[in-house]
Amino acid sequence: MMKKLITTTLILLLAMPVVAEEVDKTLEAAADGQVDISNVEGSITVTGWSRNQVEVTGTLGRNVEELIFERNKDKVTVKVKVPRRGGPGIDSDLHINVPQQSSINVSGVSADINVTEVMGEQRLRTVSGDVSTESAASDVMAESVSGDVEVDGDNSDIETRASTVSGDVTLFRVSGTVSAESVSGDIIVDEGSFSRAHLTVVNGEVLFQAQLQKGGKLSAETVNGEVDVEFVGDLSAKIDVSTTNGRIRNCFGPEAERTSKYAPGWSLRFTEGDGDGRVDISTVNGRVNLCRK
């Protein structure tokens, strides 16, 4: 009887699910070092703070093998190690505090990434998930395959690269040079001042409401979608706009012309101000609105 009871108890214990593990760990870190973070599934939240420490809190999935948390000179690694074949129960939610001047390299597979108050260079990548970050004095690269990408800046002149396959790209108060791409989704650039801006969409719209610096270049392209450009402040540029199937509305004066009496396309070429900058806008199926805000 006793043997049967022990056997039954063991079976029940083995059948019970393993609960997620709570994490609360801290390492000393360089004030302006590198922090590499990797989490396959779940969420990654990174926050800059005033301490010269990296702190990791959150939960690990019940089937996670271990959390690798180590320092090598000025580099700290935070990595969720999972079984080689993946599987259920590996989703982990991590909140990482890093020294504010740190440079970060964050990667996920099925994970959302959110970054705030980090002043160093940022490289953020995920496959299936959203990427949201604040940018300041250092360059930002933010990529997703299936998810939205959002960068909120402070008008510092930096290099920003943002891309997604399926999702929207939103850049707010980002300045300097920018390259933004989406296959299926919109690109929105709101405020900011640019020396270079290259915006490309296949299926979606482009909205640009910002300033083009003296001698600056703007390139905006879509295949299926509208392009709406509103320049803030003075504009000095040679402007070339073309559509294959769509009208052009221009608030600067010159009117668009038909490319052919047998085709629905339109083109517009003129110079505004001294013409020391360059604006190239094109769409295959969509309208173009060109104006001053």
- What does the radius of gyration come to? 25 Å
Order of helices and strands: HEEEEEEEEEEEEEEEEEEEEEEE
Question: Which stretches are low in confidence, meaning pLDDT under 50 for 5 or more residues running?
Answer: 5-17
Count the helices. How many?
Answer: 1
Class from secondary-structure proportions: mainly beta
- The domain count comes to 2
Spatial order of the strands forming the largest sheet:
7-8-10-12-14-15-13-11-9
Strand element count = 23
Shape: elongated
Q: Biggest β-sheet, characterized? A: 9 strands, parallel, barrel
Percentage of residues in DSSP E strands: over 45%
Q: Determine the N-to-C terminus distance.
A: 85 Å
Average pLDDT figure = 92
Q: Portion of residues in helices?
A: under 10%
Describe the structure.
Strands 7-8-10-12-14-15-13-11-9 form a nine-stranded parallel beta barrel. The protein has one helix and 23 strands. With 293 residues, it is mainly β. It folds into two domains: 23-129, no CATH class; 136-293, no CATH class. Helices cover 5% and strands 65% of the residues. The radius of gyration is 25 Å and the shape is elongated. 37% of the residues are buried.
